[in-house]
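REVIEWER CHECKLIST
Item 1: Sequence provided? yes
Item 2: Single chain? yes
Item 3: Sequence as submitted:
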Amino acid sequence: MTHVSFVKRRYLALWFPWLPAERLARAGRTGSPERPLVIAEPVKGALRLAATDRHAEALGLLPGLPLADARARVSALLVADHDPEADRRLLERLADICIRYTPMVAPDLPDTLILDIAGAAHLFGGEDGLVRAARLRLRRHGFTVRTAFADTPDAARALAQFGAASVAALPVAALRLGEERETALRRAGLHTVGDIACRPLAGLATRFGAQAATAVRRMVGDAESPFVPRRVLPPVEVERRFAEPVARTDYVLGVLADLLAEACRMLEARGEGGRRFEAVFFRADGKEQTVSVQTSTPVRHPTPVVTLFTHSLARLEDPLDPGFGFDAVCLAVPVTEALSPGQPDLDRAPPPGPALDALVDRLAARLGPERLLRFHPRESHIPERAARLRSGSPSGDWPVPSSGEPPLRPLALIHPPRPLSNVVADVPDGPPRRFRLGGAVLTIVRAEGPERIAAEWWRRPGLTRDYYRVEDESGRRLWIFRHGLYGREETNPRWYLHGLFA
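Item 4: Structure as written out by the authors:
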């Protein structure tokens, strides 16, 4: 019999009770016991408190209170406008800081982070060590945080916000059902989550709605809670934590090379190669710096990737600075592709990749990927719109002619198409017999076509094109088209040269 073991999920909630006020404090707008800070927002034509600092809360000024009533209680108020977008960006920034504790970090607006710490707490000596490290780091950044552990995200968040000793002791407000349902539950004598959980949930759903029953099930773990981490877990990720901060950049880069070797072994076990590699350097003061490189083809040998990182680090406008020292390095491979094993040389060196791909990778790492443009295929039947210049490796496939057949279209197009004059052609749909190109008269001996391409009606009205592959007496092969259909769109269509076949 095969025994399957499942990892029990464990969550840590980080609640920032005064997040908006502490954000403003970082910008120099700090309240005091004599002049507390409140953040106001318009609600139904009146200004109400959206958040406060610790001094205002101690005076009984709570969110939801009309600003006029708050001024009546405390005349010397410092008032700021509510900026939920700035608070959201700050919470996401704090989530990025907490990625050093676990890659599974989910912002829970407006003021909470949920960390899935299953399998990560032992790296810090257990849950107590992890939460101590997180509190210390966030306190250094100027933030007050309250924490709680639980087996579900909803329970962890509620325990952190309400400070209850257990899930059963949480007030019904922890279910976040809205003021109307909370009032109805209290009138029914249900004041805590424990009061509700010990009763049949079918009756609860009938009386107070299915949302109430679902909220209780999520709180106690009988229903799945939505948990969307800010960062998608990459297929391959390795890290190295240091017992003491390391101030030597060369040593940290050596650790990065070791991590690349470890990641490549993991890729080999998966039968894959990496297309994008990201290194995150965590500093002891809470700052981190991310450097990423990408390759034109899948790679699972560390040497070329180390070279790309060396070039990328050399071109950074803000050089890698250890500050007070690095305390961790993380390497992720977020983009992978299948890669068949190759035959090594006699000296056990990896099989060399295409020279062009290696050159492109080095140039992109040295100059920056945004400065190196390559043609990418684009879904469009209009020839000049079927490709575009973009940075990065081309995504999608180029059309390939059948075996033994010449290409249907030339590799390079003439822009803009060159007009042809004195064209002699059979009407209505015949290929040209003779035409003048510049000062020369070309006589056509072979022709294939037409390939009819209609205009993109959703962009703007246009004429139909009939393309022909033609060959003149001297063997030159041209790609020409007639712009417009005889009698239906044009009485005298124009002809153009759009490309040359090699």
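Item 5: Key structural point noted by reviewer: Residues 249-270 form the longest helix (22 residues).
Item 6: Recommendation: ____
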